[in-house]
């Protein structure tokens, strides 16, 4: 089976979106952007041996490849619309391709996202996904809007994906009743699309958590020109986390582990009630973990009112080891 046969057989999926005027099969996709809307675009590359294990289940990989990109749209408060996929394969393995497509298109169908183009080539296994979404003019959530006095919030629980990775690597022994939970958190992240949309008129800043809360929140602090103070006792930790590692180890995983793909956002105290109502309607749990303060941009960690020093740092592809 050659490149074009693979594309036709596995990646040509009929779209029900009326805004796709031309999908895969021509030189470009033609897409109808709604009037008075902004176009949100995000691209991520996943490389075998860096972002995922070479023997990772292809269905889980297909899900995760799309989910991590949709998470960026969630952080902007955008409505997911279209996606393009560039896939580099070392060889044609139809069983692997079938599994990958099952995971990818299941999530795409759930969020009504149409595959509108891409590329396929031979080489070391890597996946590049570009997602496109829309949002009303003036409604995009950004990193640079936090204000002094805003509360800092996160959705879900933190560190579970990193714990799942450590379980796969044999670094920790997770109690039997939690093994499936942490592996799912690692391999099947859930993009917080509805929460992001609900935050459009409430949050002053937002981003998704891909590299750990401490490192990611630092982006908001620098972009907004102020200091973020985190209260470690307030970090939302799952029962699986607390049953597996010490509280201090749990903090490290939550702050630096990465791959959570939860949302971190800031909200003025004035909108606290509105926030509770909006996210309750989305069925998303959230926790206040700190506040924004005037001062040198950065992240300050406190435990019981005292400064706390991390033993490790958030993920950085190009940091010297």
Q: Spans of 5+ residues with little confidence (pLDDT < 50)? A: 314-321
The order of strands across the largest sheet is 8-10-7-11-9-12-13
Structural class: alpha+beta
* Residue share in helix: 25-40%
By CATH reckoning, the class of the largest domain would read Alpha Beta
Task: Explain what the structure shows.
Strand 1 and strand 2 form a beta hairpin. The protein starts with a helix and ends in a 14-residue tail after the last strand. The chain has ten helices and 13 strands. The chain is globular. It has helices spanning 3-11, 58-76, 94-110, 160-168, 179-187, 193-198, 213-224, 239-244, 247-256, 272-282, and strands at 20-22, 30-31, 37-47, 79-89, 114-122, 126-136, 151-155, 205-208, 227-231, 263-267, 286-293, 298-303, 306-307. It has 321 residues and is an alpha+beta fold. The protein has two domains: 3-136, 2-Layer Sandwich (60s Ribosomal Protein L30, Chain: A), CATH 3.30.1330.10; 151-307, PurM-like C-terminal domain (Phosphoribosyl-aminoimidazole Synthetase, Chain A, domain 2). A seven-stranded mixed sheet has the order 8-10-7-11-9-12-13. The longest helix has 19 residues, at 58-76. Helices cover 34% and strands 26% of the residues. This is Thiamine-monophosphate kinase. ATP binds at residues 118-119, 143, 210.
